[in-house]
Amino acid sequence: MSPIRLHASNPNLYADVEFQNPPSHVTDALEFASDYTKLQEEFCLLAQKVHSLLKSAYNTIAIEKEKMKQMVSEQDYGIQNTQIARLRQSLSQALNHNSELRSRLNRIHSESVISDQVVSVNIIASPDEVSNEGRLSMSESVSEFFDAQEVLLSASSSENEASDDESYISDVSDNISEDNTSVADNVSRQILNGELLGGVFRTGRRTSLPAPSPDTSNINLWNILRNNIGKDLSKVSMPVELNEPLNTLQHLCEELEYSELLDKAAETDDPHERMALIAAFAVSGYAATYYRAGSKPFNPVLGETYECIREDKGFRFFSEQVSHHPPISACHCESKNFVFWQDVRWKNKFWGKSMEILPFGTVNVTLPKYGDCYVWNKVTTCIHNILSGRRWIEHYGEITIRNTKNSVSTCKMTFIKGNYWSSNVNEIHGVVMDQEGKVVHRLFGKWHDALYCGDAPAAKCIWRPGSMPTNYELYYGFTRFAIELNDLDPVMKEFLPKTDARFRPDQRLLEEGNVDAASAEKQRIEELQRTRRKYLEDNHIDYTPKYFRKVVDTHNKETWVSNDTYWELRKDPGFSKVELPTLW
């Protein structure tokens, strides 16, 4: 076969070239590629459908979310509108109630005839008001205050009460000297003219303490108390920083802060109303403790005394520590309208987080005008969070007040036990009953706030504590009355026995803010007391109190009463000539 010539423009193939079918594996590959492409197309279509569905679902959810937001917003707006409407309604009711109260007060004020009332007040003038000679004359007159023939007490009647929310006020008049009569007349004139109303009434006593209470944050009470759980803490020596510059004898006097209630009871003919006022007085003695959970009073040493003459309140008071183990404090107070006495013995128990104070003994009040003699017990006191947190105090238990001269009227007061956050914290309620047990008056309130007599909302406020001094938190939580208790007037020093608590150096140094010196003096005085006690025991000598004697009452219980020698010794020959023990 001759070779065939190829032309560039017309390519020629060999005539004898035979074209054959492609191999089978190539055909299979082509078919597989076609199927793969088809699957890809189907997957893409399916993916597009899924994407479309997801996008639609997302849009639907977004729309529903916006609808829900709008609904919630509208609902909140509706709730807010409802709350606003309720608040407006409450405000309107409060304003109406306030307007009604103002109207009642204006009516009471207009019906009161103040100009017909005789207001005569004796005060101890401050140094800028009288000379030293005048002050001496006044002090001498004060020492003879209760030798006067007559003491006029002004007592507001139930028809002329200025306000149910104010404490009763008892002003005392006695012409003790010509020097201060003009001062008293001037004060009376100022009161009638309204010049002193709403201001600070000047009694001649101090209105603040010389130094604030010390910092106690660095004292670890747990180290002190952990070995004394369940024991009587009156036998445990505490750091002086935990004390307040008052002792238990002065605390007994503090219970007479609202003695005006007894004055009013002494002028109330209805026996059940008298009982309600006695109950208010029994409750009022706890009010000052509300702000005092952070400190404790000094323990009096055996033979220590305290006296308090309050011309403005019309009473004279004295107390004595008659026993050391067990600790027993006795007091006696008298005025024209009443006689008050009690002896208190107590036990302190530490339970880990709290401390209980368990009192024993009775409180006694007589009203000579009616021949009444009221007797009642005291309730348990508990101080919570004693190791950590904010300390708070509560009183719980039942007080039963009875008249030992007759059974015409009795009273039961219950102090509710609660907790710091409960709505009934400090709540009290009670009843005054006749001799058949029928309820005559209902009493309710809170021991730190107020006591009401009657049924709400028409109940009448029969007692409310006075306002607290400025910055009282920095000064042991003392009330105005408590601030005055340890005040030592230079002129009055010569009339006091050297055993009076106001001469106690550790207590005085703490009041002045000298904590280190107070601590040293406290240890020295406690050691002196231990030495005296050991001497009495070694020589088998029974201690005899100077101004009180032990008697057995009608219920065969021992109690301490005045032996009627304190004021006689004070007057003649005077304590400067009486042999007294050296206590500090």
Automatic annotation (TrEMBL):
The keyword Transport applies. One of its GO terms (biological process) is intermembrane lipid transfer. Keywords: Lipid transport, Lipid-binding, Transport. InterPro entries: OSBP_sf (IPR037239), Oxysterol-bd (IPR000648), Oxysterol-bd_CS (IPR018494). It holds the Pfam family Oxysterol_BP. One of its GO terms (molecular function) is cholesterol binding. The keyword Transport applies. One of its GO terms (cellular component) is plasma membrane. Belongs to the OSBP family. This is Oxysterol-binding protein.
